[in-house]
Please model this.
Amino acid sequence: MTRTPRPSFGIMTAPMQVDYHDILEVWRDADDVPEIEHAWLFDHLMPIGGDPDGPILEGWTLLSALAAQTERLRLGLLVTSNRFRPPAVLAKIATTVDIVSGGRLDFGIGAGSRPGHPMAEREYAAHGLPFHDLEHAIGTLAEGLTVIRRLWTETEPFDFHGDYVDLTGAYGNPKPVRRPHPPIMIGGRSSRVLRIAAEHADLWNIPGGGDIDELAGRSALLDRYCAEIGRDPATIIRSIHLPVSYDHPETTRAAVAAAVDAGFSHLVLGLSDPYPPGVARWVADEIVSGSGRL
Model:
């Protein structure tokens, strides 16, 4: 049995229904708390919770601002919607953030909002973006990751003519700081996304909060897909997003323990707003240290 790596803990602050300066304060505080190793935003253009007409900040723009005002945290989006931006444009955006951060970007990406989600299509129509079917979303994710990696690593312009992505004279300059490229996190639970993760991911993320045995089953399926293509499954770090209960931290600690026992070593702790004063230090003391996982 492969030994689970030492757990690493991060926080996630959804940039909706909250002020920029509140998120900035949490991230700056977390940057000074060594028990917290990474920090995340999400990628939506309209709120998916609370007041549907409330404020929300664009994820990559905000991430660049936070990258410039932190020094240690690894950072990323949990996860980028592949539906919002053409892949070559996304590669340039991500490279810029990696450079601003000094090489601290973890590149999170997924197929985009599920068609069955009640809020899924609203933000697309409101921003003039097409909302294609799942077949298109999966196809563009696979081809998009291929061209993003090539833009980050290849030293000569190239053409790419796929079923979903078509580029002529594509070239990325400058390159990301991290070589050969920023770690790629793929988020999702469907079998088709897991097959893409087996090929491209350095980390794989899944939302927690449900049946941990079911989530472990998804991880086992990823192992199987890795074996089919001759990849060592241990080379993909297993990541999970877990909501934090401020009132009942013991519930969160129990969820962390169950996740680690199931093989998830990259723990992203979701912070709801309003953020309590000193929440980063509280997370370190009550959840990270309190779970006995350091």
The CA atoms of residues 116 and 139 lie 18 Å apart. DSSP finds nine helices and eleven strands in the chain.
